Task: structure prediction
Amino acid sequence: MENEDIALDEGRYRPVAQWALTDHGPMDGPVNVQVGTLSDGRWYVRHMGFGTRAFDGKQAAWDAARGLMGRHEGRWESVAADSAPFLAVCRADGSRVLYDINDDACLYGCWGDQRDRLWDAHLAAISAGTTLRSTETHKIFGGYIEVVAYDDPLDGVRRHAVVTARDPGSDYRAVDHLDRAAAEVEYEETVYANWDMDFPYKATDIFDIQVDRKSKRSGDVAMLDDGTILDKGDLDEYNRLYGLPPRMEWPKTPGPSVPLGPVGAMTAGPRDWAPSVDVEDMTPAAWTLADPELRANALSLAALPDGRRLLASAHDDGAHVWSIGGGEGVQRVSGHSEWVLSVALTVLGDGRAVLATGGKDGLARAWSVREGEALQEIEAHDGPVNSVAWACPPGEVPWLVTGGDDAAVRLWDPGTKLPLGAFEVGEPRVHLVWSVAAAALSDGHVCVAAAVDDFDGAAVHVWDATAKAKLHEFRVETGGALSRMPEVAVTTLADHSFRVAAVAGRTLHVWDGHTGRAVRTLQVSEDGDSGVALAALPDLRAVVAATSGRETLAWDVESGAVLARVEHAAGGLPQTVDLVAGQDGGLLLAAGRGGDAPARVLRLDPAR
Result:
């Protein structure tokens, strides 16, 4: 067949002539062209950039060789036949060096006058591909090393690119493989080879490599990915004008199953009888073994549309996402230079799960749970990000809510990392925002609540964040507890009402979010720091959970009856808890202590 792409098999071809490009242009590499015969009598032409083709006749092969030479600037010189130059670019194992900013021996350097068109096509395909592995280099460099699965734009074959850009602008190298496992081997070798103890990585998915826990940026400046330094006051305007497109297209939250309507108060007085609830301990067996490394600073639950249930846990060295069904780890992420203090899971409109993390380093980050890919990094606060939360207003992308030591609650668009709003609650470093919670209300507005410690007591602030209006401010007595970091939670109910709960010291409060009326006051077992969570049952009942000492309790808010109890093997800090409603109307309760690895999990099912 005339003009057929082929692969050369050892012993089945004989080189006749070979030429090397000399005195070439600045963008050309050391290109070689080889002409020879095949064992079946046909001729072939081999080019370092365009591969090998077979021809039925000698003249056609020579004409093709001259045509390929014409794509390059320079002088062609006859050289001895040698396969080594060809194998330096298209390796024997099928991998290819696509681009290397520091070495002309790559396909880009061999494509001649087609180099920009072909590289742009490959770069676009890689950019649209799926990131499978990722390492972020030191903040000073702002680079990365990744494995990306993509479809070759020329033949449609799935390939796996190892992209190394330790310091974008001064080094960039892309090598692709047909086999994913081979790409991951090269990726790990590259990550190890580029590790520098003086400039450690900012984040990596290779667990035995230490990430940077020391570098800090000035609190008044921000460094962009290209190394540009900006005053933080100018950052928002810069992002609006020049910001890069988001790494992921964030889907908008679909509308509710019932029409939007005005927010209202509780539709009836509290019922004084408790609901009938079946309680099942769903803690995976692997989590019953104490593991100090898995002591959780914070927990977050998510129920996926396909029935899977996930738990995220924050730790000193990163964050984990777990499958509650079998207890196995689904993902581990590490990208903060200091402790991860808070986590929050959300489920997007297309069913994908996203994790938010807040760190002591002042950063909030968003991650894809499936790939472990870093989707966004936001310099959220001047000081630790003590709490993160999600809100999913209908018809909009999710909002990320953060609270920190700078006496501020901030709202973010996670795709553009532009601020959607902010609320100040006092004096930085004095009025500390320990906890934030958020929910989309029945009218489509976002409610945000924050629990604040001002050393004299605690306060709970509640806003309609969409309207930028404060709804309530509740003072919470801590009873003189020395350690009293207050916690807050919010949940909505089907009757268009919502509840706000907060715990500080030994007292747990629940309010009607619309009227501000106190619905229930409960006592936890011990003074000190406690966690709180809220969720709703299908029969318009709210369930509140709080954890302190060695005990976690879940109550029916209306009757005050205890629905579930968890006895922990040990007390101590941190004390974390979360509740989530499943697709079937049941609730999941997760609670953690220093001896839990990472949490105890109960299922609460309304009796049918």
User: Anything to note?
Assistant: The helical segments are 58-69, 84-89, 107-110, 115-127, 180-194, 232-242. The two ends are 72 Å apart (CA to CA). The mean pLDDT is 87.
